[in-house]
Write a structure and sequence with these properties.
transcription; SNF5; nucleus; 3-stranded antiparallel β-sheet; about 375 residues; 13 helices; mainly alpha
């Protein structure tokens, strides 16, 4: 308790001396301001509505690190984003690791926040210079009017549209399998594959020699990705999601409109995980599997170009052959009668109804070994395609 009181007094002293609000401090270390308020009030006992001991320990560690960084920067640390935790939606970028879990404080978010803060600071400096020029040229204008006019002359750069590419990092190192899935934004302006590979290597304490391998796999999969331009017509395709996390096997089959730009794999993954009572770590995995299936179908729908004219000529038929084949098909078509077996729009049988919709299965040791063998075969096949 003495350590907690000492830490609390140091925090209060810094906040009062530098005129820092608790809300800004909570935002800086990446926790909710109400959680920090409970901790500051010494309500850190495991009650129903208060924070638990593990959360209290986590808050103390974050505050100790924040104090050290604050003193190292001599009071200039607020707003740097150095200890901001990744939010829940950022998990689509950093998802599942089979080697070592990702650290709660990611260097990716540190660099992103530093870049965004530098852009904001540059814009503010330009606005101030323009405001000074307007006040000098027009003494009758007020300061607020000059600031508003300068801000309108320098609009905020709108965020770029995200075009996510499903990326799978899969290779072996010293007999240990390294597997990671995430989505890479084609319009990413804050990160390059080389920096991202170095972050993965450092956070998972991997040898630096695999940085080039991770970077190569990211670049290769991004280059092989084909952009799909939807049309106005509806195009329904069957999507199949089949993934495993440890001994939990998730399976789902659904119809997806390829031309509907409002469809979001991330929103569907979040809704499915909540309906099935699954942990949050499944959301990015399901979204990644959906995007992989969608990308595979988009590649299949692309028209084949670059074919040799001789091959096209060999595949064509004469008018006589085409007419004969059409007459043969016509005779077969009218000879068959529509019944229950060949009726396309008949009701699904009871056993086939469970093929559509999500399902969860807990695997035993034998089933787990069989699934792992199937995954290894699928991985080797996918590597050959890449």
């Amino acid at each position: 308790m003495q350590i907690q009181k000492d830490l609390k007094s140091r925090i209060q002293e810094i906040l009062q001396k530098h005129n820092i609000k608790q809300v800004d401090l909570a935002r800086e270390i990446g926790i909710h301001h109400s959680t920090l308020s409970l901790w500051m009030q010494n309500k850190n006992k495991p009650r129903k509505q208060d924070i638990s001991n593990s959360q209290s320990t986590r808050i103390e560690e974050l505050l100790e690190r924040w104090i050290a960084t604050f003193h190292a920067n001599k009071g200039q640390g607020m707003g740097t984003g150095q200890f901001r935790l990744p939010d829940s939606r950022a998990s689509q970028f950093m998802s599942h690791h089979t080697v070592r879990p990702v650290l709660p404080i990611s260097k990716f978010h540190i660099l992103r926040n530093q870049y965004q803060n530098s852009i904001k600071q540059q814009r503010q400096e330009i606005i101030l210079r323009k405001t000074q020029e307007q006040l000098k040229n027009n003494p009758n204008i007020s300061l607020q009017q000059a600031l508003n006019q300068s801000a309108q002359d320098i609009p905020i750069e709108p965020p770029k549209h995200q075009q996510l590419v499903p990326i799978t990092i899969d290779f072996e190192l010293d007999g240990k399998k390294i597997y990671q899935t995430f989505c890479w934004n084609l319009n990413e302006s804050h990160m390059i594959p080389e920096t991202f590979a170095r972050i993965i290597t450092e956070e998972n304490q991997l040898p630096s020699v695999i940085e080039q391998e991770i970077c190569t796999q990211i670049k290769k999969q991004v280059q092989n990705y084909k952009c799909y331009y939807p049309t106005k017509n509806e195009m329904l395709k069957n999507l199949h999601v089949d993934l495993r996390v440890e001994n939990i096997h998730f399976n789902d089959q659904l119809e997806w409109d390829m031309n509907n730009t409002m469809n979001s794999p991330e929103a569907l993954a979040e809704l499915t995980a909540k309906e099935m009572g699954m942990p949050e770590q499944y959301e990015p995995r399901i979204a990644h599997a959906l995007r992989e299936s969608i990308s595979s179908l988009q590649r299949q729908m692309e028209p084949k170009t670059g074919e040799d004219f001789s091959n096209l000529k060999k595949s064509t038929r004469t008018l006589i052959e085409s007419n004969a084949n059409f007459n043969q098909f016509k005779n077969v078509m009218f000879s068959n009668q529509i019944n229950f077996k060949n009726w396309v729009r008949c009701e699904l049988e009871y056993d086939h109804q469970f093929e559509w919709g999500p399902s969860i299965e807990l695997l035993d040791q034998n089933a787990l070994r069989n699934v792992q063998k199937q995954e290894d075969r699928k991985t080797r096949y996918v590597r050959r395609l890449r």
